[in-house]
Amino acid sequence: MTIETQHHRKLIELIKYPIITDKTTKNIEENIYYFAVDKKANKNNIKEAIEYIFNVKVNKINTLSQPKKIKKVGKFKGYISQYKKAIIKLDNKYTINLFEES
């Protein structure tokens, strides 16, 4: 494998999945998208990954680390896994199609 393909594979692995809730779907109209990303990713890596994967231009990125949450089921207690959230504002000319047209 060449160095370039390894770099592209790492970029693809940085972005885990889009976060889709009522609030995030309303923000899609304003060209703001939410993604769960790798905990070790920084803003430059996230920007490079989004621009490579979706072929768009990113204007602004905000990131925040979600805290671990306690989940109780009966007498058992566990934790919901922690992840980093990236809030991405795209340039007005670009959009990302997260939902398939049927």
Structure characterization notes:
Belongs to the universal ribosomal protein uL23 family. The chain has helices spanning 3-14, 22-28, 43-54; strands spanning 15-18, 32-37, 58-65, 69-73, 76-80, 84-90. By secondary structure, it is an alpha+beta fold. The protein has one domain (3-90): RRM (RNA recognition motif) domain (Alpha-Beta Plaits). Strand 4 and strand 5 form a beta hairpin. Helix 1 (3-14) packs across helix 3 (43-54). The relative contact order is 0.21.
Per-chain topology:
Elements: H1 3-14, E1 15-18, H2 22-28, E2 32-37, H3 43-54, E3 58-65, E4 69-73, E5 76-80, E6 84-90
Antiparallel strand pairs: 1-2, 2-6, 3-6, 4-5
Helix pairs in contact: 1-3
Order of helices and strands: HEHEHEEEE
Strand content: 25-35%
User: In which range does the helix fraction lie?
Assistant: 25-40%
Structural class: alpha+beta
In the CATH classification, which architecture applies?
2-Layer Sandwich
Total DSSP helices: 3
Which shape, going by the Cα principal axes? globular
Q: Can you tell me the number of structural domains?
A: 1
Biggest sheet layout: 4 strands, antiparallel
User: Could you list the spans in which at least 5 consecutive residues all have pLDDT below 50?
Assistant: none
Termini gap: 37 Å
**Strand segment count:** 6
